[in-house]
From TrEMBL:
Subcellular location(s) per record: Cytoplasm
Organism: Polaribacter ponticola
Keywords assigned by UniProt, alphabetized: ATP-binding, Cell cycle, Cell division, Cell shape, Cell wall biogenesis/degradation, Cytoplasm, Ligase, Nucleotide-binding, Peptidoglycan synthesis
Function: Cell wall formation. Catalyzes the addition of glutamate to the nucleotide precursor UDP-N-acetylmuramoyl-L-alanine (UMA).
Name of this chain's protein: UDP-N-acetylmuramoylalanine--D-glutamate ligase
The keyword Transmembrane helix appears for this protein: no
Pathway it works in: Cell wall biogenesis; peptidoglycan biosynthesis
GO molecular function: UDP-N-acetylmuramoylalanine-D-glutamate ligase activity
Domain Mur ligase C-terminal residues, every copy: 308-421
Length: 444
């Protein structure tokens, strides 16, 4: 019996443990921190052995294979020891993929991947395909492989998940964009992060597809210097493409099959240039899976978008409150500010992953009347925007940030939470930050 060790007792870890046990492995889960009650109950119910608040080395170093959850960096001593002992250390998606014959649509990118994943899933489900959605969303991929038999999976894949793949392949890979993010995990080397994202195409063959943003400098550079076997399927807002998706006279044109699609941008349910790109990528993925044009158009018109991504929370005394807590990097916040049509009070800050805020200066100058800081260390924000915005206030929680914003915003203006940072200094996660913000707005 092969021994499977799972490092990390969160969603991906517990899902892998369930699948491993089902496939006849001797499974042991080890978490260095405390595990949530919910996951401990699941492991007990499935009679899977686990430990928390420690890693007992002699129970781990006898593994045949180790699944490391994406949050654990490769440079951790225990992981290094496993590698030195030639024990394979893989990600959950690598482990789970060997137990399904489903067609996989894998979606990665610095921004837009959640929205694009949900949009592809929405289109395929509405078209009647037997499809699951997983990765960074909802139940883990491994657990779904254990409990369902879907013909298709739409997977949102982070660079950390892709770092742990060997044989995993997406029949259709989508690369939404690449901008500096998580550089703390890649030795502050942008090229290492770019290579990590492109692992999504490493096992693709000539019968597979790579859908990508042809306006993205980092993507174009990589494609010039490296080879992929996949068929390239580009989308662009800037140039007309012979093959792919582009924009002409405010219409999206998609020209990859005989069934050419022509759709007014105004009919899309989610607004903004980045959402036009997400819609192009999702539409091409659906077309490659033979979904009919009419089905695609209907789904694009009634799609609701992702929670915590430019989500309209409420209008209070004629001021709009918008929750974009999912914006954990500068590029995501750039999109949010670009979409703002009203004078804005901007709530920003948190754990900075090596941010350069200078890209935001023109948008901030044009649209932002006041900045409300929501983080423990706000020096960089104050230094960057101190000369551009007259009012910068520091706050220490969502409720305080919302109350201060209400005082600063006038009729016809907007309050935007778009932090450009991770949330772990004051909140459990970006979801927690977004929920606390929404609760505070509803209490005004």
């Amino acid at each position: 019996m092969k021994r499977l060790i799972v490092l990390g007792g969160g969603e991906s870890g517990v899902g892998t443990a369930i699948l491993g046990k089902q496939k006849g492995y001797d499974v042991f889960v080890s978490d260095k921190g405390a595990m949530s009650k919910k996951y401990k109950e699941v492991l007990k119910h499935n009679e899977i052995d686990f430990e928390e608040n420690q890693h007992t080395e002699n129970k781990i170093l006898n593994a045949d294979v180790v699944m490391k959850s994406p949050g654990i960096p490769d440079k951790v001593a225990l992981v290094q020891k496993l590698i030195e002992n030639s024990i394979p250390v893989i990600s959950e998606i690598e482990f789970a993929a060997q137990f399904t014959t489903a067609s996989i649509i894998g979606i990665t990118g610095s921004n837009g991947k959640t929205t694009t994943t949900l949009l592809v899933y929405h289109i395929l489900k509405n078209a009647g395909l037997n499809v699951g959605v997983a990765g960074n969303i909802g139940d883990s991929f491994a657990q779904q492989v254990a409990e369902h038999s879907f013909d298709n999976y739409v997977l949102e894949l982070s660079s950390f998940q892709l770092d742990g793949i060997e044989k995993f392949n997406s029949h259709i890979a989508v690369l939404t964009n690449i901008t500096p993010d998580h550089l703390d995990r890649y030795e502050y080397d942008f090229n290492k992060y770019i290579d990590s994202k492109f692992r999504i195409t490493k096992n693709q063959t000539a019968s597979d597809f790579l859908i990508y943003d042809a306006d993205d400098e980092a993507i174009n550079k990589w494609l010039l210097e490296n080879k992929t076997s996949a068929k390239l399927v580009p989308f662009s807002l800037e140039k007309k493409l012979e093959y792919g998706a582009y924009v002409e006279d405010n219409n999206i044109i998609i020209n990859i099959t005989k069934d050419r699609i022509n759709m007014p941008i105004s009919t899309l349910s989610t607004k903004g240039k980045h959402n036009t790109k997400n819609a192009m990528a999702a539409t091409m993925a659906a077309q490659l899976l033979k979904v009919r044009k009419q089905n695609i158009k209907e789904s694009l018109e009634d799609f609701e978008g992702a929670e915590h991504r430019l989500e309209n929370v409420a209008k209070v005394r004629e001021v709009e409150y918008i929750n974009d807590s999912k914006a954990t990097n500068v590029n995501a916040t750039f999109y949010a500010l670009e979409c703002m049509e009203k004078t804005t009070v901007w709530i920003v800050g948190g754990v900075d992953k090596g941010n350069d805020y200078n890209d935001l200066l023109p948008l901030v100058r044009e649209k932002v009347k006041a900045i409300v800081c929501l983080g423990l260390d706000n020096e960089k924000i104050k230094n960057t925007f101190g000369n551009v915005v007259d009012i910068i206030v520091e706050t220490a929680g969502a409720e305080e940030a919302v109350k201060v914003s209400q005082k600063l915003a006038e009729k016809g203006e907007a309050v935007l939470l778009s932090p450009a940072c991770a949330s772990f200094d004051l909140f459990e996660s970006y979801e927690d930050r977004g929920r606390q913000f929404k609760a505070a707005v509803r209490n005004l």
